[in-house]
Amino acid sequence: MEKPSEHSRRFGTSDLSASNSRAMPRREFLKRSATAVAAVSILGGEALGAGGKRPPNIVLINCDDLGYGDLSCYGSKKIATPNVDAMARTGVKFSDFHSCAPVCTPSRAGLLTGRYPIRSGLTRVLGPGHRTGINDDEITLGEALKQRGYATAIIGKWHLGHEPRFLPMRHGFDCWYGIPYSNNMGGWKNGPDGCPLMRGEDVIEAPVDQDTLTLRYTEESIRFIREHRNGPFFLYLAHNMPHNPVHASERFRGSSKGKLYGDAVQEIDWGVGEILKTLKDLGLERNTLVMFTSDNGPNGGSAGCLRGGKTMVFEGGMRVPLVARWPGRIPAGHVCHEPASNMDLFTTCVTLAGGSVPADRPIDGRDIRPLFTVPGRNMEEYPFFYLRTSYLQAVRFGRWKMHVGRGTETLAKPELYDLDLDIGEKRDVAKDHPDIIADLQAKIASFMKGLPAEAGLGGSPESF
Q1: Tell me, what's the pLDDT at 24?
Q2: Band of pLDDT at residue 231, cut at 50, 70 and 90
Q3: What are the residue numbers of the active site?
């Protein structure tokens, strides 16, 4: 399906000095990890996990702008997602899972580093006109797993910087096939070529044929799995759909009751089925953790019963689906109601691989393996902070969520919502719970002390 175009070329040769000099903390982390892998290689080349067995393969599927209500297992009546539904029936479905940001770049930064994006400086959506990206000192999930002996691949959207020093293969991924930013963005030099498709650091198609993009991402994912069947491998499949402009291949157009948007989601679901079938055919499904989620709330889709959508810190902008399947390890058909976030996936995956998270920097993600494997398991409550660009706008602790800013405005008085009774955030009960307000304000003050100087509270003069 790949169609190299006459526009194929390498990315520009911007200043690469930063990529040739890693910061000391990161070098030390990689050095320690490399030592562990070297010891493993003596035992036959397999990275060892708990109990002396090879750690599991990990497949992480991350959709773009898929809403909380866009899957049939989360209540959609217009979109049929039988393969993701089957994952939920044979695995676990999370009802209270959050992204760390309501838009693309910061959400992906948090997912891949386990850190609030304000810590890495990736707080705004990047485009072809930006010359910034992921800092060389950040340790991505790809890097952490690669140092545990994993083959690592990203298929799909990167969106952490498009200049050479920011690209995936400089940050822990062995291979990349995809788009450097969102599918509604133009050429990498703001030129006329349109959004580029890349393999490694080569542009192979510009503009990319988006109608067949989901199909090709699925094919590339299956190819990677087959080539690395002896594992362990980490596949990060980051779909561009159903971000606007929405596309679907001819086979799926008209297949749903949800118009083209629904068709695109159903094609993603088909791809999930093909990947699961491949794992089964290769005898890998019992040693592979597969997770399916979204980067933030919908922009054109459905947030279900939640208020708001993409760009907002209401639940509709940040609460997203998470379904996970691992036969023999994750009990079938349970629903997890414990709060968790996409930053937790970093710590969980690194720990699962037998590694340790970096100790020289704040890591906000927790190891949530018990929530996958033990139905009804509770974890210690912890505050979750909702940031829009560099500004903290809300905080969640247990059932309580307090808003202090909205959009570009700082609220005159905090708003408080009881999410156990009011998941739609419709009834402000702040006046009835001054003690809760005081406690949440103290949590915010404590959190803010550890943030960079540019961090603010409430409204933001910036835009996404």
Answers
A1: 42
A2: confident
A3: 104, 159
